[in-house]
Design brief:
5-stranded parallel β-sheet; 9 strands; binds phosphoric acid mono(formamide)ester; binds norvaline
Length: 301
């Protein structure tokens, strides 16, 4: 039987995505009521992280431990990967030893190469192209706060980056409208936008994108690996900061999300991040619950 990977949000069907959100909400409630869930008993997760992480790492490790399994964190500094062992060799060896593997890396093709040589499920914990795990938590948070997102309007302001690509995939699967506002030169991948059809539009006006929206989302202007571009990006993105004036264009009950870490005073003002419409702390917590639901789905496949 083919191994089930999660390299992209599009590896889920729309029905599976909805079921996963429902399950994550249930798992959150169980934890809130102090109920333990042994759903990953005796399972071992291998975690290859070539970039920094707080939320994703702790969500995966916490999920495994709270559900009766364990996790092994592998940084390139301490493994042979960092000394040039080929990715396909590492994949073949690790996947004979652990039950599931999560990878955070730069090139999406590296993740795909690893998955092609793995006997066990591989999860995308972020690449330069996509961050699908974050969308599980974001959509869980929206459903918890406002119900189904089908037919709603979402505004993405800022960089057409990995998070933006995963939002496009979410719009495609869950059937919401996504208005993306980016400066020229920083737009999302045209093929990803095209595949999503009429529900996704891209322009350069943050106020027009925010108008009447149910949810506003942004992310850092310089992603991991783009540190040298920081200054040029700060200049290009300055008009795209999510401020109270931008929020005022959206519906009165619109939510604000950010995958974090946030740079206050750059992509978002302190007032918005800490304001009543911001759900970023629930969004971060939901990384834990939605990661459990994903691990359960892939290990049961
Ligand atoms: N949002 C997110 O993926 O955060 P980390 O980089 O801390 O994992
Ligand atoms: N776009 C950001 C997301 C961090 C969680 C990055 O890739 O650095």
């Amino acid at each position: 039987m083919a191994v089930r990977h999660f390299l992209s949000l599009l590896d889920l069907s729309a029905a599976e995505f909805r079921a996963l959100i429902k399950r994550a909400i249930e798992l959150r409630e169980e934890r809130r009521h102090g109920l333990s869930h042994d759903i990953l008993r005796h399972q071992v997760l291998g975690m290859i992280f070539e970039k920094s992480s707080t939320r994703t790492r702790v969500a995966f490790e916490g999920a495994m431990l709270q559900c009766g399994g364990s996790a092994i964190f592998l940084s390139p500094r301490d493994t042979q990967l960092g000394r040039g062992e080929p990715i396909q060799d590492t994949a073949r060896v690790l996947s004979r030893m652990v039950d599931i593997i999560t990878i955070r890396t730069y090139e999406h093709s590296k993740l795909e190469l690893f998955a092609a040589h793995s006997r066990v499920p591989v999860i995308n914990a972020l690449t330069d192209r996509e961050h699908p795990c974050q969308l599980l938590a974001d959509m869980q948070t929206y459903f918890e706060q406002r119900g189904d997102i089908r037919g709603k309007s979402v505004a993405w302001l800022g960089d057409g980056n990995n998070m933006c690509h995963s939002y496009i995939h979410a719009a495609q699967l869950l059937d919401f409208d996504l208005r993306i506002a980016c400066p020229a030169g920083y737009v999302p991948d045209t093929e990803i936008v095209r595949a999503a059809g009429a529900r996704v539009s891209v322009n350069d006006d943050p106020f027009a994108a925010a108008r009447g929206a149910d949810l506003l989302v942004t992310d850092v202007w310089a992603s991991m690996g783009q540190e040298e571009e920081e200054q040029a990006r700060r200049h290009a993105f300055a008009p795209y900061q999510v401020t109270a004036a931008v929020m005022a264009e959206a519906k009165a009950d619109a939510l604000f999300m950010h995958c974090l870490p946030a740079h206050r005073g750059e992509e978002v003002s302190d007032e918005v991040l800490e304001g009543p419409q911001s759900v970023v702390w629930d969004e971060a917590e939901n990384r834990l619950h939605s990661q459990k639901a994903l691990l359960e789905l892939l290990l049961r496949a």
